[in-house]
Amino acid sequence: MEISKKILKVIGLIVSILIGLIIVIFGYFNLPIENNNDGAKLGMTFSNTYATSIGLNWKETYIAMLDDLQIKKIRIPVYWDSVEATQGTYDFTDVDWQLEEATKRKAEIILAIGQKTPRWPECNVPSWAKNDDDVRKENLLKYVAATMQRYKNDPVVKYWQIENEPFLPFGICPTPDPALLDQELAVARSIDNTRPIIVTDSGELSLWVQAAKRADIFGTTMYRTIWKKEIGYFEYPIGPRFFQVKHSLIKLFANQNNAIVIELQAEPWINGSTTDNTLEEQFKSMNPAQLRGNVDYAERVGFPEIYLWGVEWWYWLKEKQNHPELWDTARELFRNRQ
Q1: Per-domain boundaries in the chain
Q2: pLDDT, mean of each 10-residue run, the chain (338 residues)
Q3: CA–CA distance, 267 with 99 (Å, rounded to integer)
Q4: Dist CA 323 CA 178 (whole Å)
């Protein structure tokens, strides 16, 4: 009986210490940061397939982003299933058009290449490659090579991104495969060793080291308000210092000093598809005040570039729902910040 009491006391002490440590750590993460770093450059991810899926003319949306918002830093996914719908036949027409329009306006592009690229379902493997891993892997490398060969001499491309959050098991995707990623990176560097390669990872759900040690520039996602079936809406209880600590970790363990925000939440995270829900529900997790707050949060982290996520939704609100507030707020935020 005495032994049982002693064991319980020890367990209780350990639990108390752990709880205390967690409180101290989260307290540190939420200490205020005075430097706003409002010199950070702002950019945007644009997905032609997502724009189309929510009923927009994607070319019109893209031009509005360039000309009205005057965004000059853009991340464009090269969707494998779109450019190689038939094995061995490549159609880069849509990518060419986006790069040509960006060139006219002296913008710069991150070209995101891989089987996993921005937007749901995350992975975009052509139907002909889905049922045979050997076929998928072999042809993935060919598609990476073909894309980079096509655009390696195009000065509008400033960075390559190889895969999107390749270590995060999320989306309708094959199992994460570090060896395959290394092969993709080797192919990429053999074709172009002049431009930096970005490798990305989850801001909140990863330690970053695996991605950062493979990258010339590491890119983190940054989400503030999410929705989970079990709890509903949830705001991560972490301040900007959380990301600064993780940056220190990759400096130490991955010899990586270069980091950017590759995907800052600027659209809702709700139950189901965004535009299929009510506007009231959409605005619970993104509205003009939250957009400004998220940009301010990202600036305080201190990274030099911040790419936002959600321009297609802003345009849908403006054109289809007579709600230009997010679009107008973005115009103000992007002014002189590129």
Answers
A1: 1-30, 37-334
A2: 65 62 58 73 98 98 98 98 98 98 98 98 98 98 98 98 98 97 98 98 96 98 93 93 96 98 97 94 97 96 97 98 98 86
A3: 24
A4: 43
Residue 228: exposed, middle, or buried by beta-carbon count in 10 A (0-12, 13-18, 19+)?
exposed
Please state, in angstroms and rounded to a whole number, the distance separating the CA atoms of residues 310 and 333: 14
82 neighbors 96 (Cβ within 8 angstroms) = no
Q: CA-based Rg of the chain, rounded to a whole angstrom?
A: 21
Task: Give, for 113, the enclosing helix (H) or strand (E).
Answer: strand 108-114
Over residues 17-41, the pLDDT tens digits come to 655 655 555 565 666 676 667 789 9
* Site of tokens 């080797």: 186
Collapsing DSSP states into helix, strand and coil, what is residue 273? Answer: coil
DSSP 215-278: -SEEEEEE--EEEETTTEEEE----THHHHHHHHHHHHHS----EEEEEEE-S---SS-GGGS-
Residue 254 carries which DSSP code? S
Q: What is the SS3 assignment for 107? A: coil
Can you give the pTM of this predicted structure?
Answer: 0.92
Q: Map residue 315 onto helix, strand or coil.
A: helix
State the amino acid at position 53 in one-letter form: S
Q: Which residue has the tokens 């935020």?
A: 333
User: pLDDT digits over 138-185, tens only?
Assistant: 999 999 999 999 999 999 999 999 999 999 999 999 999 999 999 999
Match 């991560």 to its residue by tokens.
Answer: 236
Question: ∠ at Cα 123 (306, 285), nearest 5°?
Answer: 45
Range 37-334 classified under CATH 3.30.450.40: no
Residue listed under structure tokens 């190689």: 84
Phi then psi dihedrals of residue 21, to 5 deg: -65, -40
The CA distances from residue 139 to 116, 152, 187, 189, 290, in Å, are: 14, 19, 12, 18, 42
